[in-house]
Amino acid sequence: MTVGDDTDLVTRAEFEPTKTSPPTTLTQAYRYALDPTPDQANLLRSHIGATRFAYNALLGLVKVNWDENRTRKETGEDVAKEDYLGTSHFDLQRLWYERRAELAPWWGENNSSSYNYACLNLSKAFANWRRGQARFPTFKRRGSKATVSLMPGAVKLTDSHHVRISRVGVVKSYESTRKMHRHLERDTGRILSATVSEVGGKFFISFTLEVVRSIPATRAPEKVIGVDVGISTLYTGATPNGEQVLMVENPRHFVRAEKRLAHTQRVASRRQGPGPGQAPSKRWRKANSRVQKIHAEIANSRKNLINETTTRLAKNYDLIVIEDLNVTGILKNHSLAKHISDAAWGEFRRQLEYKTTWYGSALIIADRFYASSKTCSHCGAVKAKLSLDERMFHCEACGLTIDRDVNAAINLARLGLPGTSSGTGRGGEVRPEHQILNATAHPDEASTETLTLVSA
Asked: Which among 76, 117, 256, 358 is least surrounded, fewest beta carbons within 10 Å?
């Protein structure tokens, strides 16, 4: 599924609903928590370990071969191209088939998908290194990214509460999988791949499906909302007429769990952890498991709040306007980096981009340099400076006093109105006679069409 091009300008015609909405094929992901028995959990860990072992074994063979050939070259010996082991997916697969009996006599205990995806992942790592997009592949250690990918034929939903995994058996899920199961029953969905992961001592399975579904026609922009993201108040929403309709306080998931997390990390630091030629102790594994559980709890709580908010916005509003924030640049402020990361503004935008398409609404990303917080929502005057500790916006031109987040949300909402342009304020010094841009400057100079349609 593709989204609108970033260079598209918003016009009224683009928001007119289409008469028909033919079924669309798109890729959709589902993730469910598993409830395996102790034996099944051991089998899943065996598959995860087999993937890691195959990856490391093949990487070791390639490195030894390349090092030997380099030594031969240094001694003046001619080395043919055929003497080097290939790093393509099929080359690594062939190498594994030739050496698996020697390297892993137990290879038949696990599903073939474990070794196939190990070859695929290693070949991608080498390809990224050759393109200069990553460093040379390194060995995977136990406990890092504990996942195993499965081919479509190795996994199947038996009903809405059970998953059959090859060489593992029928595994119960904690939650109902009925939404995905209905797609498979109606032949409107096809499993492309599945990945089992262990996070914080719990197992999850993620499905990638090719789904055929009818996307609702884009609604006319009758209900418009501007959403300003922040730290003290996570999301503030307002309509173009100035009515505040959304306020989500920041629960500060990480900050609330920080003291408990620090305690568990101190306990883990006193145990014998992994190191060069040193295996971690059982007490370290238990302590580290408690640390991972807290991290998983924080991540799940954060994602749940974002899911609830974005679904509510996409269902109840026809047009949503948000800011285009330079999160990477903002994170350089070390005083706020922890709180900004905890707010997860990037995830909020990512979910809005696809949910607005699913529910027939539209999303507009305002220009990054649009001064939504510095612009008066009553008269349009732009303040030269507005520090972060000023939580109330006071306009010196018209005397308006309003919460700065509400003021920003109102300005963003008005950008979604047809025929509206945004005045660009880059935070510099603005002369008093030039503050009221719309009233004193030429329209072509005071404003620029900076609206970007992300989904329609």
From this structure: 76
Q: What is the pLDDT of residues 62-94, one digit of tens each?
A: 999 999 999 998 888 888 888 999 999 999 999
Residue 406, Cβ density class (10 Å: 0-12 exposed, 13-18 middle, ≥19 buried): buried
From residue 360, alpha-carbon distances to 12, 13, 240, 347 in Å are 16, 15, 20, 20
Mean pLDDT score, 288-295: 91
Q: Where are the domains of the chain?
A: 1-21+217-249+302-456, 27-37+149-214, 40-130
Convert 85-111 to b/e letters by CB count within 10 Å (16 or more is b): bebebebbbebbeeebeebbeebeebb
* Alpha carbons 89 and 91: distance in angstroms, whole number: 6
pLDDT tens digit string along 33-44? 999 999 999 999
Return the number of other C-beta atoms located less than 10 Å from residue 437's C-beta.
Answer: 20
What tokens does 410 get?
Answer: 């109102």
Q: Is the pLDDT of residue 168 over 60?
A: yes
Which among 436, 445, 419 is positioned nearest to 379, based on CA atoms?
436
What confidence tens digit (pLDDT) does each residue in 104-114 have? 999 999 999 99
List the 452-455 sheet strands across, edge first: 244-249, 233-238, 224-229, 319-322, 362-365, 452-455
Report the distance separating Cα 263 and Cα 1, nearest Å: 45
Largest CA distance in the chain: 84
Q: Are 60 and 102 in contact (CB under 8 A)?
A: no
Adjacent-strand bridge partners of 275: 278
- Cα torsion for 380, 447, 310, 326, to the nearest 10°? -100
Q: What is the spatial distance between Cα 432 and Cα 446, in angstroms, rounded to a whole number?
A: 15
Q: What is the model's pTM?
A: 0.75
